[in-house]
Amino acid sequence: MKVLVALASANRRGAEIEGTELARQLSARGEEAEVVALAPSSGAVSLDVEVLGAAPLSKATLRALRRRAKGFDVVIAYGSSTLPACAIALLGSRVPFVYRSIGDPTQWSRGGLHRLRTVLLFHRAKRVVALWPEAGEAIGRLYRLPAKRIVVIPNARDEAVFRPPSDAERAEARAAFGLTDDATVVAFVGALSAEKRPLLAIESVMQVDGAHLLIAGDGPLRGEVEAAASDSGGRVHVLGSLPDVRPVLWASDVLVNTSSTEGMPGSLIEAAMCAVPVVTTDVGAVREVVGATSSVVEPSASAETIAAAVRDVADGPGTSAADAQRFSWGAVAPQWLGALGDAAR
Predict the structure, then answer these.
(1) Could you tell me if 217 and 193 are in contact, meaning their C-beta atoms sit under 8 angstroms apart?
(2) Which secondary structure element, helix H or strand E, spans residue 39, and what is its range?
(3) Is the pTM of the predicted complex or chain greater than 0.70?
């Protein structure tokens, strides 16, 4: 089966990384999978993928996508602007597409003409892949899509890559960031954007005595985050976008997620596989991912509440990576193969 994965951009962000890795996993299982991006990266770090145009929905990009899709059995529209792009570019072609919904559909739904347009776009897809069951139900309800066309497949990570560290690896990771063995270390892995609320993460961790916060990510709030870090007395470390976040997780006692909206955060899956407990706001599919030793707080939780949860989790019994194996590619890739095979028929 020949599969083309279309990304919204070449940004090194969660959905784009996930889509790129999906193509690699399909190729490793004998399929022919390639990746394209509708637009270039808007940041300093970019994925090494073919970029089709300057803007996701420009005429030139849509023409390039239609040409590029020829000869493929199915296209995966991996979130965001790839839905209208594939719905338009592949109209009248014999190439079906599968749309991967990457967020919480109840948070992004609007009324009126926008809802009608989205209904039409969803109905162009041969299959819609939701991240968790409630998201699939919401898509069916909001966009009048028959249940038989909706598939639920979670995000995934490579279990050979994301694993608990050895004692030596943990010590080496801490030393690389200038952290002592007995320090309380908290990780924030994600875009520095308004919906991720990295400034709330900083405010929260600063209320945990002596704790350090490692921030791996980039985005429009980078300047504000760095300004806050400069006032932290060296306790907030802004690392930028990293090609490998394992050292951050291996050095950490807790991962904090302060998002106001989410799909299924890959960072939580990575933390779970590395046996790092989590403090997270109750958004999207986080309850599908976190274990019993993690803490889920209300989306409106204050910095004081989040700080208290970080203290409790950091002082707790830790967590096991065993439960996270349902998010391994060994478990998830066969689900994708089934959905793509159905769509390509």
Answers:
(1) no
(2) none
(3) yes
Token pair for 329? 């590619």
User: Can you give the length of the chain in residues?
Assistant: 345
Q: Residues near 319 by Cβ (< 8 Å), separated by ≥ 6? A: 272, 275, 276, 277, 291, 292, 293, 294
Q: Which residues fall within 8 angstroms of residue 335, CB to CB, at 6 or more apart?
A: 151, 153
Per-residue pLDDT of 184-207, as tens digits, reads: 999 999 999 999 999 999 999 999
Sheet holding 50-51, edge to edge: 50-51, 32-37, 2-7, 74-78, 97-100, 127-130, 150-152
Kindly tell me the sign of the dihedral angle through the C-alpha atoms of 224, 174, 264, 41: positive
Rounded Cα distance between 146 and 136, Å, is 10
The pLDDT mean for the chain works out to: 96
Amino acid at 265: P
Domains of the chain: 2-156+328-344 (3.40.50.2000), 167-324 (3.40.50.2000)
Q: What's the burial of 299, exposed, middle or buried (CB within 10 Å: 0-12/13-18/19+)?
A: middle
Q: What is the DSSP string of 260-318?
A: SS-SS-HHHHHHHHTT--EEEES-TTHHHH--TTSEEE-TT--HHHHHHHHHHHHTS--
pLDDT in tens, 60-110: 999 999 999 999 999 999 988 999 999 999 999 999 999 999 999 988 777
